[in-house]
Amino acid sequence: MTAIDKFMKSPKGKSYQGGLHVNTILANGVSPATISFVLLMPSLAAIAEWEKSLVGDPDIAAFWQTLEENATPTTEFMGSLVKSWGDASNSDRIWMVTNLRTTDPMAVVTAQDKLMAATGDKFPGQIGLHGLQIGTRTGANNDYSTHMMAVGYESVAEMEDWMTYMNTQPAWAEFLGSLRGSVVWQGTSLVENTLVYDAALDLETFLND
Amino acid sequence: MKKSIFGLIAFLIFSTQALAAPSIKIYGLQQPLLSKHL
């Protein structure tokens, strides 16, 4: 965390035009990952350009070195936002992240639209459905993800209350039932934003622009 | 005819701009458990 902060305050770090979330993973099933870095940028091309600009840079080299001494890379995914629901809020720091494999992305969007129509007036959080076009292998039984659903809450308590409520709702059963033939759910992680660098691009702008 | 060509050009420009969606890259890392919260 100290190393990332040092990098973000370096000349190269200050030139970064996206958002950066440094996450502590609270639970994630069989994956060995304990932390994650999430880059948020306007496009996949912008991410590629940023990474290209890091080659040979001394600030990032110092950060990579610290990282190499203290952590082992496990996964890399790239994807793009398909649709978001709920109120985009920079205050949400707790995320339930579910990977899924679907043969019908629009069925997922339609089912989520329907679920929001039935329960959205009480929903306290926000949802982002991302298409995972790159780095799709999950490592579990040679499986792969096509999408990722990230549901954000202000606190674990808020999430807990909502999940308790949802489990009593027929609309939740309808949502799950309607996707039985077209979605394989691949497990859910719980992550917390430990550090957020959003001076150049915050979550609300990322989702709404 | 002219109108429809201009309409098509406008549509193509708009749809090209709309193609880039907000995007993410996620790096997963494993740290020794004792340093997880450091």
List keywords for this structure.
heterodimer; A: 209 residues; alpha+beta; Alpha-Beta Plaits; 2 domains; 36% helix; B: 38 residues; 1 helix; rod-shaped
Summarize the structure.
By secondary structure, chain A is α+β, with helices and mostly antiparallel strands.
Describe the secondary-structure layout.
The complex is a heterodimer of chains A (209) and B (38).
Chain A: H1 2-8, H2 11-14, E1 19-27, E2 35-41, H3 44-53, H4 58-70, E3 72-86, E4 94-102, H5 105-119, E5 126-134, E6 147-153, H6 156-166, H7 170-178, E7 183-197, H8 203-208
Antiparallel strand pairs in A: 1-2, 1-7, 3-5, 4-6, 4-7, 5-6
Helix pairs in contact in A: 1-4, 5-7
Chain B: H1 2-19, E1 23-30
How are helices and strands ordered from N to C of chain A? HHEEHHEEHEEHHEH
Characterize the overall form of chain A: globular
Estimate nothing, just give the exact number of structural domains of chain A.
2
Q: What are the low-pLDDT stretches of chain B, counting only 5+ consecutive residues below 50?
A: none
User: What's the helical proportion of residues of chain B?
Assistant: 40-55%
Broad CATH class of the largest domain in chain A: Alpha Beta
What low-confidence regions of chain A span 5 or more consecutive residues with pLDDT below 50?
none
What string gives the helices and strands of chain B in order?
Answer: HE
**Total count of strands of chain B:** 1
Strand content of chain A: 25-35%
Quote the distance from N terminus to C terminus of chain A: 29 Å
